[in-house]
Amino acid sequence: MRITTRVNGTEQEVDDVWAGESLLYVLRERMGLPGSKNACEQGECGSCTVYLDGEPVCSCLVAAGQAIGREVTTVEGLADGERLHPVQEAFVECGAVQCGFCTPGLVVAAHDLLARVPSPSDPEIREALAGNLCRCTGYEKILDAVRLAAERQAQA
Amino acid sequence: MDFLQPSSWQEALDIRAERPDAVPIAGGTDVMVDINFDRRRPGALLDLGRVAELREWGTEAGVVRLGAGVPYTRIVEDLADRLPGLAMASRTVGSPQIRIRGTVGGNLGSASPAGDAHPPLLAAGAVVEVASAARGARQIPAAEFYTGVKRNALEADELIAAVLIPSAAGPQQFCKIGTRNAMVIAVSAFACALHPDRRAVGTGIGSAAPTPRRAVDAEDFLAGELEGSGLWESRGELPETLARAFGERVAAAASPIDDVRGSAAYRLHSLSVMARRAVTWAWNDLRKAA
After folding, report:
1. How close A93 gets to chain B, by Cα (Å)?
2. Tens digits of residue pLDDT in B209-235
3. Domain residue spans in chain A?
4. pLDDT tens, B110-162?
5. What CATH number matches the domain at B53-166, 3.40.1160.10, 3.30.465.10, 3.30.420.40, 3.60.130.10?
6. Average pLDDT over residues A64-76
7. What DSSP string runs through B115-176?
8. Distance of CA A82 to CAs A73, A97, A108, B195, Å?
9. Is the distance from CB of A58 to CB of B96 less than 8 angstroms?
10. CATH topology of domain A3-77
């Protein structure tokens, strides 16, 4: 099966995709975009979160064929060239990253939250990140990072 | 494995008839897990994501026709007023990423006893609309749709088109027990609906029997007691003894098992507590509305 889809603003075309393949597999193994992480493969951990037509989804649960003709944005598409997105900067500054495996998914989920809710309350942050597991940080630094990114966004 | 991608409902039904080996996929939150873990290798995936009709909802004569492919997020956003029980249950599904993709049609197709949508559908008296290319559409009451563990009343050439759910005439509640708030499969779940217009009570039990099921005896008992004591008119306080007896009857309608998520005894106990609380909240909402 041929998959053509727009990823991070660039038209991508890959051939010989198996019908049961996930969008995550296609992104990582066929398009050379390993930012989205493969952990649970059952929608529990959120490490593979990407935007599909502007909505944050677990790419491990999207069949590759379902992404044909759609718009995909991965964590690789958030930075402006070498300049990190403010959400990414906030994660670095707050030490919201330890092993880093959950970080791409959390960055996409936090990016989505701040696009929809510019000044989220703590319960709103917790709810928005409820589908992303982190086994290192205990989440406090991640919450700090989202609050910092929201503050900077409000000032900008 | 083939990937079949119809762009209209009619085309989907035609493909369904030709390919009984195809597994329908919408949000993928159940089907892709099975494929990722090598538990299922169907001859084809039948992607319903491009069938626009499935993603629509509308109302007619006080009944919401919810397309099988409307995701939970939209139920929460659009239908909390008309379908409060289903909206409450939808809020507890998985995580934001899952609610954006997962659908009630998928819940019905998987027919897991733990599906969050089932209890409120049962309590509201919902009807499942299915269709085939050969025989057209037919309607199956939700209570008859679940036929066994992960089994439903669909024929091999049928697809789920929509769910017909009466707009709430009174308060509805949904409760779910799990090990945490987010990303949890129900250990047990309960939904109730008060129908003051016809002086009836609706219930739905989840994760505590081979299929989702109503607690019919509890429904009849409570409706009768409310009638006998004049409470439908007076809207007086719901006696605690009555709420407790209702809870016990709800638990008596369940037949749970011990499994990794919880014991049968815990499921029965939690059901009786949830039913007592849920019906008390619903009754208090009814009193406030009066």
Report:
1. 26
2. 999 999 999 999 999 999 999 999 999
3. 3-77, 86-155
4. 999 999 999 999 999 999 999 999 999 999 999 999 999 999 999 999 999 99
5. 3.30.465.10
6. 98
7. -TTHHHHHHHT-EEEEEETTTEEEEEEHHHHEEETTEES--TT-EEEEEEEEPPSS-EEEEE
8. 17, 19, 18, 60
9. no
10. Ubiquitin-like (UB roll) (3.10.20)
Candidates A63, A68, A109; nearest CB to B32: A63
Question: CA-based Rg of chain A, rounded to a whole angstrom?
Answer: 15
Instruction: Name the 3-class secondary structure at A121.
Output: coil
The predicted model scores a pTM of 0.97
What are the tokens at B73? Answer: 């997020």
Residues B73, B31: Cα–Cα separation, whole Å: 19
* Record: contact B101-A62, CB cut-off 8 A: yes
The CA distance from B2 to B23, in Å, is 10
CATH code for residues A86-155:
1.10.150.120
Q: Which CATH number fits domain B172-289: 3.30.470.20, 3.30.390.50, 3.40.50.300, 1.10.1240.10?
A: 3.30.390.50
How far apart CA B11 and CA B18 sit, in angstroms, is 11
- Does residue B35 sit at the A interface (CB-CB below 8 Å)? yes
For residue B125, report the phi and psi dihedrals to the nearest 5 degrees. 75, 40
Contacts of A56 in chain B (CB under 8 A): 96-97, 100
Which token pair is A135?
């086994």
Q: What is the pLDDT of residues B35-87, one digit of tens each?
A: 999 999 999 999 999 999 999 999 999 999 999 999 999 999 999 999 999 99
How far separated are the first and last CA of chain B, in Å rounded?
Answer: 58
Rounded CA separation B29/B39 (Å): 14
